Amino acid sequence: MRKVSSVFACLLVTGTLLSACGGNNNGNKPAADGGEATPAPAATQAAEESATPSAAPADDITQRKVTIKIHYPTPDLTEVRAQEDDKIKRFQEVYPNVEIVKDDWQYNVSEIGVKMAANEAPTFFNTYATEAKFLIEKGWVADITDLWNNYEFKDQINPVLQNQFIIDGKVYGVTQKGYVTTTMINKKMLDDKGVAVPPMDWTWDDMLNTAKGVADPKKGISGIAPMGKGNEAGWNWTNFLFEAGGEIQKIEGGKVVATFNSEAGVKALDFYKKLRWEAKAVPQDWALGWGDAVGAFQQGRTAMVMAGSDGVIEQALNQGGFKPEDVLTYPMPAAEKGGKHTGVLGGDYLVINPNASKDEQEMAFRYITFDYFSDKGLEALDAILQQRKADGKYFIPPLLDYYAADSDFGKKTKAVYDKYSDIVYQYNTDIMALLDGKPEAQYNTQDYYATMSNVIQELFAKEGTDSKAQLDAAAATVQKKFFDTIKVE
């Protein structure tokens, strides 16, 4: 679930290597099709250096003709397409034996089965953190463990993200980017109202008190803007379900069983009721989607918003005129002191078609990782930062990227950021130790979000709702319409 501004998406692709995003991530939000993936970045030195062997062995894959159908951006992403075209050109300079066919189909859970049955799926395609077990159980994704084990940079990949596609010790995909839901705080609004900045290791009570202290309903100012429209509403609330120790579903006797109507679910829903009716901290026009909530933050009409950090900060600094010191990025609050700061973990991945030949699978893997850990990517990042500085714009690095922050490449990237410290947004160094990402549900995530959105809307519209009754009804609906149709093998 994610949301990326088009400018930010293009920036990331242009700039590297950086894969990250939220959309919509990117800022990050749920979407009916799971979100959109951004192709990964610039050129790899290692690949180029290996392009001219003195004498190729007879079984050298570079001596055999191979055709791969690649995941390609949609027509509306003109700048992203230009970047991918550049990558194709560079890749074929290293591997002239490879013919590349472009395919702009974007992963959709309702279409993937037909694509695989008709043998029309690309050699590799994008998918999301929620889909790992589903695709593996259906046999629609290749086991690339051997390719992974021979990959030079596997130990530098971000394990938090990559582990979502490592199941029972086998590797089934490569991470592009990811996010953990965070809370962005407008510090200036707190200062203007004399409200203390909460501790980084904050709790639900801290969030409630901060939101209540800033809210001024008569002036149309809210303390926090939980998303209340579309699947985003259910997605935002799920963070609190996780923080309270709840789960969306469980597997029992080969069936998927709804579990969000638990004591933890009631606790999380009751907290929303406190924000809305006790603190009066939620916008009066609470029917906000991702763009609406982020827009309210950018315009100074709400002090807090919950999403992937990148897109929110991008809009606040480069469109809203905020100063970096006035935009604070916090982990999600713990339900109680000492609890986990759990946020929904999402991400974009590239997986390989199991129907492809071994040569096609290997070349697909080489293409996917072609720009990872690239010195030329670092040069491109430097150029992006130079241009941003010249344009008077800030650069917001992703909170989570495909590489591990403490890897050699992570350190090289940080060194580039440090050269432009006056325009690169700085996250509080304490946040990484507190972040706790929990993946979205493996089955019918969007259907669950949509159902919970109806619950949130009823709660915001009518005082005195019965949280347990609401959740029981929602769980019954999700169970009958969606979960009962699934057979787990």
TrEMBL record:
Residues 1-19 form the signal peptide. Residues 30-58 are annotated as: Disordered. Keywords: Signal. PROSITE patterns: PROKAR_LIPOPROTEIN. Pfam families: SBP_bac_1. PANTHER family: ARABINOSE-BINDING PROTEIN-RELATED, SUGAR-BINDING LIPOPROTEIN. This is ABC-type glycerol-3-phosphate transport system substrate-binding protein. It comes from Paenibacillus silagei.
